[in-house]
Amino acid sequence: MEILGSSHKVDDPVERRRQECRRLCTVLLGRLPSPDLEAGFLRAYDLLPELASTEQSLHRLLASPIDLEAVEIAWRSRSPRNPLTQRFQVLSYLAEVRSANGSFHGSAGTGPFRGLIILGGHLLRTFVKRLRGRMLLRRAGDL
Amino acid sequence: VTSDFIIVGSGIAGAGAALALADHDAMVIDVGHRPPPPALHGGWPELRRAGSDLSDVLLGPRLESLHNVFRPYLSPKLKAPLLRFVTEGSSDLMPLRARGFEPVVSFALGGLANVWGAGLYRYGDLDLQGFPVGAEDLHPHYDRLTLEIGIAGGDDGLTRFFGPTDGLLPPVRLSPVFEKLLQRSDRRPSVAGRGLFLGRPRLGLLTVPHGDRLPYAYHGLEFFQAGDPAVYSPALTLDRLARQGRIRYRGGMHVERYQPRADGIDVHARDLGSGELVTFKCRRLLLAAGTLGTARLVLRSHDDTRTRLPLLDNPVSYMPLVDPWAIGGAEERRFFPGVSLNAVFYPPRATEPIQMSLYGMAGVLKSDFAFEFPLALRGMLAANRLLAPALVMVQLFYPDERRPACHVGLGEDQALEISYHPPTLRRVESDLLPLFRRLGLWGRRSLCRTLPPGSSFHYAGTLPMTRDPGGPYETDTLGRPGGSGRVHVVDASVFPRLPSKNHSFTMMANAHRIAARLAEGHC
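^ Those are the sequences you sent over. The predicted structure of the assembly is below.
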């Protein structure tokens, strides 16, 4: 797991989960979570035993500076219900039902041509991310 | 407690039977969970923008709505917290062991119709192949129920599949993507020439006032809460008849078995409040507890743990399509989140058509489907916003026939045991994709999904109706097991086969037909 680099150990599980939420939120939404979203994520840990059961195995991955978006798409392509994707799904639900979340709501209003160009760009970006993710997963090996 | 008629169950068949037996000393016995009061007010898009935390209402205080992240697929409607009443208590009241099947059972007032798509379609003679009754037998009952329910629909390319348009309310308003799709379908007859027909659905949804019910306000909340009287539910009919004193309704009772006597039937039910066993007496008993509920009730009443009854279920799959011209379009503000259009396809060399329902995706949580996009996370969020107005989800129902490997029986511990093997289907998705492309919708075969057996909620066929019932578990045209006696099965248990077409309206019409015959004293 050399690619994961070194991560400083956090003993307090609440603090560790808070850091995890910040990391996931930054990757998914491009910004830090609002306090209520962070509180919701911590509560999800109490309510969903599936999150806690995979916490240890993902801890180093989530604490490392690895390209998480690349790892996620590569892992999702191979196994759609992997614990990393599940965490992003949980966060996605929690973000969608909270506040006026611009990442989920409202129309793009771009029209079809610009919309298609944007989607095309994301397809290309996904292709690159997936390749990079596969490489990272191979190097990580024991995920 | 005595009645001339007792109806067990309050779903679509129970309501059909109760309507025909109103003013004939009829009582409905039912568990009858009711929906919680509506918690969402206003339109779905505005609610999402309002800046409030809708977590408890949309995800549930215990995050129940995240079911599909970790567990086997459950319809978005069934996992919504305010719709959980539909399946409340079902595992206690009806223990099940299922192999290859994910059954859904409801003890709610109105049954599974609380989470239905409100699609109401008449069976024609082609659909009724193998039934001992024909379309002519059912038409008067469809007509009567059309008046009761208030069905929206149109006269278009699907009229020849869906039957007469008499008594229909004006069709449901369409969002632009479906309006354009319908126009393209009209302009391109070559698509119909290749067997694909499009048209407006027949929906139990009010588009104009109907009796004391107001029309639908296009708030788009049907995936999150029930109880809008503009959307038909059997509970509306039963509540009205009970309020008018034309039937009696006994909720909170779970019928466990019945016992024929020389002068009638004893019906043994558990009072769920007190736990006491109560015996009701009636002249005739109508079973409308749903295919699985009725099967268990009949087998328990016969103390039969050996017989295996046949089971039918429509295999169901989804095909996501995109209209490229609608990408990046404006978000819908007012819409109906249920079926927007129907399609009917005659596959080459097939003997019967496949019916499809076309939905938009504006009325569900985007997180329900976002991770299906084969895109990295940021692309997935962009696709959410760009594709949502352009996405069309096509839901296909395949017909089902009686097969030895699919059956239901009663275990020694009184649990219902279900075994189901999916049929080998001649899939039509690959035939459909090029036809939909001609209509401007693009998709990929690899994105099509087949749902696990049981996901359709279209269960049927356990006590099939025939002209000459052979044995105690085949029914005659009046739904009588063995062809005689005072017990009448009036739900989809009596369907000898399941065509592709949604069976709700026929279930209700058949129940109405049998009950009307009883009301006339024909037995």
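The helical segments of chain A are 13-29, 35-47, 49-53, 55-63, 68-78, 83-96, 112-140. The mean pLDDT of chain A is 86.

Shout if you want it in another format.
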